[in-house]
Specification:
Helices cover 73% and strands 0% of the residues. By secondary structure, the protein is mainly alpha-helical. The chain has one domain. The two termini are 42 Å apart.
Length: 75
């Protein structure tokens, strides 16, 4: 990923922000480093929840042949 920085503004729950500030201070890091880490973790987490396109394609291609089996497995 690019190391270029961009400023943005948002609002955060004050209790969460207080905890993040405390974490940053305890770890000797800047809040921006924790925000970068949190965003990267969120992106990675979301990538894992979406099926890969070739897997979904194989499933859809097999659906006509195995739809009854898939229904039984879903129960």
């Amino acid at each position: 990923m690019s190391q270029e920085r961009e400023k943005f503004a948002t609002q955060v729950n004050s209790e969460i922000l207080a905890v993040v500030r405390s974490l940053a201070q305890n770890e000797g890091r800047q809040i921006q480093a924790l925000v970068d880490e949190a965003f990267a973790d969120l992106i990675e987490k979301r990538k894992k929840t979406q099926p890969r396109s070739h897997v979904m394609g194989a499933y859809l291609a097999s659906h006509d042949k195995y739809s009854e089996l898939y229904k039984k497995l879903a129960k």
